């Protein structure tokens, strides 16, 4: 029998091997096999509960600091010539730790972008938290830049489009690639720096950076999202033919309708419901959810499969989509278009009158949707205003869907998934790509109906594969860490809302907090703080449940056109049911963990690219309103300034610290505040502010603001060096009271 290590032995191993901290690494180190892994898992869970470890995805780390040996990315030297590095293994909340490089004469020369393995030492210094000594170089990121070319007599310079970059690149006359002044270009590092600027060679000209359709193109290039399909992938897709009925259940007479946004590019899910005629299930319903059978076309190991896995998911921008699959599949053969037969995998689910699922089973079928509808027209029909398309479907199809949904709502109330109220922005474009308006999307019961049906189908897929002992990728959302939960509790208490301590956290506890704050001036703050306390969801072969949805078993099954994770689940269902040879292969199973990590990364890449694009569109939209005043709320605080989220557009702008007045502002990292040394003015997350727009740069997406008032009080004009003198004593007293309150909060947190 394997010997189970003690808790000190486990902690010593993790401290000595910071890059080998997954459960399987620990098990391998101590020779733990078979059933003994359960005891190891119990020990690790106890160490988590005791606060010694924090689980990050499938590995364990000390939650309070960076690993003693970490991967760092070298940054450009600062104005004093000091070399700093960014910790790539930092996943905490708040401001990222600052790492100073301590170089030795024997170390190789390091440049911006180099990745190194370094040994870290915790220090207490004004401008950094760690000192790092290089162990070895582990490689460099490709040194490329996207920017605007400015022609000079010596060649030119490139102004980066990344709002986080502050250094230009120099281009010699023979490396411009024919670029014109003002063009958007992509360049790569061409040699050592001259006059302090990196030397670059232009590799591609991308046109006018101010053109509306360049906005998403910048994000695509900047984040390395593949947007051109290789010829072999397109050829493979073009050779595909529609699937027939052979080996499938005939669902063509079932009125499975699709309900999507009015501008949907694809339709990968359809649904139908009717009352259950089983006398043992009075008031119950039968719900069918049918999903495009992408697995029948994208088979393991094919060119289509390799490209889909590489992309991981589709990426959506206001003006375009970068799809996971070529249009022949995503827009045609795998899209459940109205009136045409389409291959599908469908699940029949029986629920009782209270919305609880009684049973379910999957079939591989052939369907033909009678209608492709949008959310707005479906909701209008239910509300008594059916159009010509929805009128004939109202009684036989739409009303039974809503009846089944009403039952699912009852089950949802009992389950208590997290009920965040964070309106989603919608950027509306003109035909030429310019922004016509920025709205907040309306949430209809039609949206919620489809969401509940899809959640139920995803649960059914996970439960089926678990029962059949078939490996799969789960959608995992773990509970908040103790540190994040404590930060949320402090924020809630500061706003006057209690969050109970000393109990196993459930979503219903957070929902009580959200409900208590609803309608108050702190509602948005509490919603944002709750969201920030959540762990990031990911894909993995181990089932740790979905905290946010309050579900024990959950997998993504309903969107295989746009998510590779769903395609994996479809293949797992094919294998589990013995439907064909296009299921999950042994080699796919062996690399499920690697695949889960990869597609979790591509999902985050898409999210960042979509966010950056939104920022640029918002900056473009606001560029005509420079000088106007806006209301908003402090959404973040950093050493270099404060961030403000504007009420009317949801745009985030930066208030540079240099614009806050002539006094010195002290940044408290733990409290998350900026406090004036002379006036005592304290700036912290959640405060209501009025700000003037001073800059909006569409190319970078940067928005700069000047604070005019905080919580209804005008900004002090003074500071010890200000001609206007110090702020009135009333403001000083108020600022100091707030500062003392925050200090007490930090003191409680430390104790």
Automatic annotation (TrEMBL):
Q: Where is the composition biased (Basic residues)?
A: 727-751
EC main group = hydrolase
Q: Which domain of life is it from?
A: Bacteria
- What CDD domains does its record include? S1_RNase_R
Q: What is its EC number?
A: 3.1.13.1
Q: Which UniProt keywords apply?
A: Cytoplasm, Exonuclease, Hydrolase, Nuclease, RNA-binding
Q: Where is this region: Disordered?
A: 711-751
Compartments reported by the entry: Cytoplasm
Query: Residue limits of the S1 motif domain?
Result: 627-708
Q: Which reaction does it catalyse?
A: Exonucleolytic cleavage in the 3'- to 5'-direction to yield nucleoside 5'-phosphates
Instruction: Cite the InterPro entries for this sequence.
Output: CSD2, NA-bd_OB-fold, RNase_II/R, RNase_II/R_CS, RNase_II/RNase_R, RNase_R, RNR_Ribonuclease, S1_domain
Q: Which HAMAP family match?
A: RNase_R
Per its database record, what is this protein's job? 3'-5' exoribonuclease that releases 5'-nucleoside monophosphates and is involved in maturation of structured RNAs.
| The family this protein is said to belong to | Belongs to the RNR ribonuclease family. RNase R subfamily.
| Name this polypeptide is given | Ribonuclease R
Question: Species name for this entry?
Answer: Pseudosulfitobacter koreensis
């Amino acid at each position: 029998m394997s010997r189970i290590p003690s808790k000190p032995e486990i902690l010593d191993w993790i401290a000595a091997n910071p890059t080998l901290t997954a459960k399987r690494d620990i098990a391998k180190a101590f020779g733990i096999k078979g059933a003994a892994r359960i005891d190891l898992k119990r020990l690790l869970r106890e160490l988590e509960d005791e606060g010694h470890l924090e689980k990050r995805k499938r590995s364990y780390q000390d939650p309070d600091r960076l690993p003693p040996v970490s991967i760092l990315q070298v940054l450009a030297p600062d104005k004093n010539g000091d070399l700093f590095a960014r910790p790539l293994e930092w996943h905490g909340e708040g401001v990222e730790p600052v790492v100073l490089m301590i170089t030795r004469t024997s170390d190789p020369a390091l440049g911006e972008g180099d990745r190194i393995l370094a040994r870290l030492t915790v220090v207490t210094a004004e401008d950094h938290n760690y000192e790092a000594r290089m162990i070895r170089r582990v490689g460099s990121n490709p040194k490329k830049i996207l920017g605007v070319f400015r022609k000079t007599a010596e060649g030119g310079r490139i102004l980066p489009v990344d709002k986080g970059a502050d250094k230009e690149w120099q281009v010699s006359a023979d490396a411009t690639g024919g670029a014109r002044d003002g063009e958007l270009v992509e360049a790569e590092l061409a040699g050592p720096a001259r006059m302090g600027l990196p030397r670059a060679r232009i590799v591609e000209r991308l046109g006018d950076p101010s053109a509306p359709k360049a906005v998403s193109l910048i994000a695509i290039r900047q984040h390395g999202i593949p947007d051109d399909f290789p010829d072999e992938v397109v050829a493979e897709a073009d050779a595909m033919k529609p699937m027939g009925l052979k080996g499938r259940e005939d669902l063509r007479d079932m009125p499975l309708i699709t309900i999507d946004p009015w501008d949907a590019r694809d339709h990968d899910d359809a649904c139908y419901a009717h009352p259950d005629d089983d006398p043992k299930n009075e008031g119950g319903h039968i719900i069918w959810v049918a999903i495009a059978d992408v697995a029948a076309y994208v088979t393991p190991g094919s060119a289509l499969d390799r490209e889909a896995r590489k992309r991981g998911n589709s990426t959506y921008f206001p003006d375009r989509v970068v799809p996971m699959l070529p249009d022949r599949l995503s827009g045609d053969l795998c899209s459940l278009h109205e009136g045409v037969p389409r291959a599908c995998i469908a699940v029949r689910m029986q629920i009782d009158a209270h919305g609880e699922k009684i049973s379910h089973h999957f079939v591989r079928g052939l369907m033909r949707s009678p209608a492709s509808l949008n959310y707005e027209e479906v909701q209008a029909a239910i509300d008594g205003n059916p159009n010509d398309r929805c009128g004939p479907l109202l009684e036989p199809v739409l009303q039974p869907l809503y009846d089944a949904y009403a039952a699912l709502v009852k089950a949802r109330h009992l389950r208590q998934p997290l009920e965040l109220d964070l309106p989603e922005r919608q950027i509306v474009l003109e035909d030429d790509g310019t922004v016509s308006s920025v709205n907040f999307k309306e949430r209809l019961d039609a949206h919620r109906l489809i969401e509940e049906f899809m959640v139920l189908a995803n649960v059914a897929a996970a439960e089926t594969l678990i029962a059949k002992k078939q490996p799969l990728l789960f959608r995992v959302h773990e509970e908040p860490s103790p540190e994040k939960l404590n930060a949320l509790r402090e924020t809630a208490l500061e706003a006057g809302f209690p969050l109970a301590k000393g109990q196993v956290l459930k979503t219903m506890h957070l929902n009580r907090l959200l409900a208590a704050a609803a309608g108050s001036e702190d509602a948005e703050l509490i919603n944002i703080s709750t969201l920030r306390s959540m762990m990031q969801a990911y894909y993995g072969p181990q089932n740790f449940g979905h905290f946010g949805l309050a579900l024990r078993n959950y997998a993504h099954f309903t969107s295989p056109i746009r998510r590779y994770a769903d395609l994996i689940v479809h293949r797992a269902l094919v294998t589990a049911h013995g439907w064909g040879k296009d299921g999950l292969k042994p080699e796919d199973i062996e690399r499920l963990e690697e695949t889960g990590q990869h597609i979790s990364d591509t999902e985050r890449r898409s999210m960042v690219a979509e966010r950056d694009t939104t920022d640029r569109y918002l900056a473009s939209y606001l560029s005509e309103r420079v000088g106007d005043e806006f209301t908003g709320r402090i959404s973040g605080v950093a050493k270099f300034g404060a961030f403000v989220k504007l009420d009317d557009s949801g745009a985030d702008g930066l208030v540079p610290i240099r614009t806050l007045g002539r006094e010195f502002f002290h940044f408290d990292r733990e409290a998350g505040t900026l406090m004036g040394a002379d006036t005592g003015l304290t700036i912290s997350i959640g405060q209501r502010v009025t700000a003037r727009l001073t800059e909006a740069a569409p190319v970078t997406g940067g928005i700069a603001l000047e604070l005019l008032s905080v919580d209804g009080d005008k900004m002090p004009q003074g500071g010890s060096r200000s001609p206007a003198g110090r702020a009135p004593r009333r403001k000083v007293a108020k600022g100091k009271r707030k500062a003392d309150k925050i200090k007490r909060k930090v003191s409680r947190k430390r104790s």
